[in-house]
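The material for today's practical consists of a large collection of protein records. There is nothing in a record beyond a sequence line and a structure line. Backbone structure tokens are a discrete shorthand for how the chain folds in space. Nothing more is needed to start thinking about how sequence determines fold. As an example, a complete record with its sequence and its structure tokens follows.
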Amino acid sequence: MKKCMDSANLHRRLKKIIGQVQAIDRMIDEDVPCEDILSQLNAAKSALNKCGQVVLEGHINHCIKDALESGDEEEIKNFTKAIERFANMQ
């Protein structure tokens, strides 16, 4: 699985998301207006969705490409599950 992902990119993105979530936690304690907290929550959600896109893109470019070339019907069938999971993130 690791070979199909840009792990450095994903780790960098996830560190930023962790920072965003920690900032949101602080905002709650600092009595920041609800609108500002919601805005930051939306930004964190969007960042997580982008991580999902990066993972899905790697899956398509590596795993699914290999499955198509080798005729691996099971992997191709599992691709539907991956798409459903990604769609549910939205």
Q: What stands out?
A: The two ends are 23 Å apart (CA to CA).
